[in-house]
Structures are given as C-alpha cells and as structure tokens.
Amino acid sequence: MKHNNYFQYFLDNTVNLSKANLELLSRRVDTVYGVLKDDDELGPLIKKKIPQGSWPQKTIIRPQNGNAFDGDFMVQMLENVEWEAEKKKYGDAVYRVLHNTWPYKDMPHGRKCRCVYLNYADNAMHLDIVPFVLRDDGTQWIINRDNNTWERTDTDGFTAWMKAQDAIANKHLREVIRIIKFLRDHRNSFTGTKSILLTTMLGNQVKEWHTIGDPGYYADLPTALLHIVSDLDEWLQLNPSKPMIMDPAGTGTSFDHRWTQETYAYFRDRIHVHAAEIEAAYHETDFDKSVKKWQTLFGDGFCAPDSSGASGKYSALGTGVGGAGSTSLTLPGRAG
C-alpha cells in the first residue's frame, strides 16, 4: 500500500533538512563569501558565489547519527595566468584568507582535492568551498589539487538537468533522492556511494517514455519510489562491472573516481535488496502489514501524521501533511 500521508510526514519530520538549518547555511555562506570578497588580494579575482550540490538541487537531508550536515558552494574566480603551472594556488588563496581570519582560523579547516573545508562547532555543520575558474574562452573549470589539473564543470547545466528530470517524474525525483540518501545514512547501507553518484544514477532512470505507456508511472511519491528504484536495480543487474557515470550536464567529466569496483558491487547488491523490500511494502494489501514493511525499511519515523503510529486512523491513499515535530528512530541493521 502507498500510505501517502505517512510518506509526507516521514519527509517533513525525519528526512528533510529543517528550514532553520537551511537559513543557517545560507547566512554562513554569505558571511564566508563576504570575508573572501573583502580580501585585498583575493577579492579582485572573485566574480560570484554559486550554491553547489544537494543544496541548490533540493536533495539535502537532515544529518544523522550525530553527523554534520553538509553545504557546498562554489567561488567563481577569474583566470590568473601566473597560476597556470600551479593550479592549486586558487585553493591556496581561499585557504589563506580563512586561515588568517577570525573565527575561521580557530575552527577545524583545511584543503582537500577540490575544495577548502570548514567544520563548525559541535560538528553541527560542514562547509566545502570549491574554487572554480572562468577561463578566457568562457568555459568553467574546477581544480584537482592532487593532480594539478583542470576538471570541466557546469553547475547550471546539472541543476537544469535535475529540474527537467524532476518535472518528468511529477516532482517526485528530488523526494526519491532524499529518501534513498536517508536510507544510506540511517541504515549504513551502500556506504561509500557519494551523493553525486546517487543523484545521477537515480535521475538517469527517469524516462519520459515511461509516462507514455503508463501516465501514472510517477503519479505519487511511493509509486515514483517503486519505479525509479526498480528501474535502477534492473540497470545495475545488467552491469556487474562498475559502469562509467558521466556528468549529465554534458561536460564530458566522469564521476568514476568517486568509487571503486568493491564499493559499486556492494551498492549493487544493497539496491537489489532494497528494491525487493520496496516492492513488497508497496504491494502488501494488509494495511498494518504494509506499514510494518515500510517501517522495516525506513524505521519508526515512517508513521501516521499524528506520530501515534495508529495506522488504522488514516487512509492508505491520504495526503495529509504532518506537523513540525520530530520522531524517534528505531532502525534495523545493515543486513535488512
């Protein structure tokens, strides 16, 4: 059974990042960007900031198990020909400003392959600042610090692709992605599979031709979840070896470096299990048994909108939206 009202409550109260945290992320990004822009040396090179990843794509989720929630933004910089031989200097310039500015100099911070990171107090929030360069020919590139190489990027293109795929999926693709990311983080299932890979693979399963043969293929969230994950499972089973996952923005960039054959094989096996669990819960005709199967997959946060868990009070086809309170979680282990 679908339990649409349960799904909405589950998203609102267990999966989605709160409005307060989204506003906090926006404020902190504005503050960091202002510090970078005001620097006498770095400031003239900076054009603008662009939110990146799950934040602008609306697939960011609530942090779990005491972990920080992640926010990324890109700093668009003009090309400095003097740094061509040492491209890492773009990231070094960002790092230098933060390393010498209060309060960031007293916070955990550092440089990674493609970004500069900041960790806020009590591990409540992690911020990645990604320098990217607008070259003289109009193309956009990020820098691989480890290899001292350019990597093509098109953040607007990826976001446009996501918007188009979400529209085909009747506005349920982003919700499905958030739920699958929740499943990964709460169940410790297919750990090691980065969000960009999950987003791309799930989005690639959305096909307009599905809606021609079946106009209700993405009719609601549980139906979209069933079909998108089932289609992903079918594709994965046809590919025992790690396939190349390309940037759907058309940059020619591969995301292949973000996982290994071992990580892929584990992801493939777990999605096969979860696809069967979703199908069993969706097609279960007994109301309480269906709720129990969904809860086995998602935990006790999947419950009736009044948080009571009194499943008989609501219709399986309801669309009620719950309140703002949070629910406790009792989650099964990885083997489920």
Key features of this structure:
336 residues, alpha+beta, 2 domains, 7-stranded mixed β-sheet, 11 helices, 43% helix
Give an overview in words.
- This protein folds into 2 domains: 19-153, Beta Polymerase, domain 2 (2-Layer Sandwich); 158-298, Poly(a)-polymerase, middle domain (Orthogonal Bundle).
- By secondary structure, it is of the alpha+beta class.
- The chain is globular and about 65 Å long.
- Strands 1, 2, 3, 4, 5, 6 and 7 form a 7-stranded mixed β-sheet that branches.
- Strand 3 and strand 4 (116-119) form a beta hairpin.
- The chain has 11 helices and 7 strands.
- It starts with a helix and ends in a 38-residue tail after the last helix.
- The longest helix has 23 residues, at 261-283.
- It has helices at 4-15, 19-38, 54-57, 89-99, 155-168, 173-187, 195-204, 208-213, 221-237, 261-283, 287-298, and strands at residues 46-52, 69-78, 109-111, 116-119, 125-134, 140-144, 149-152.
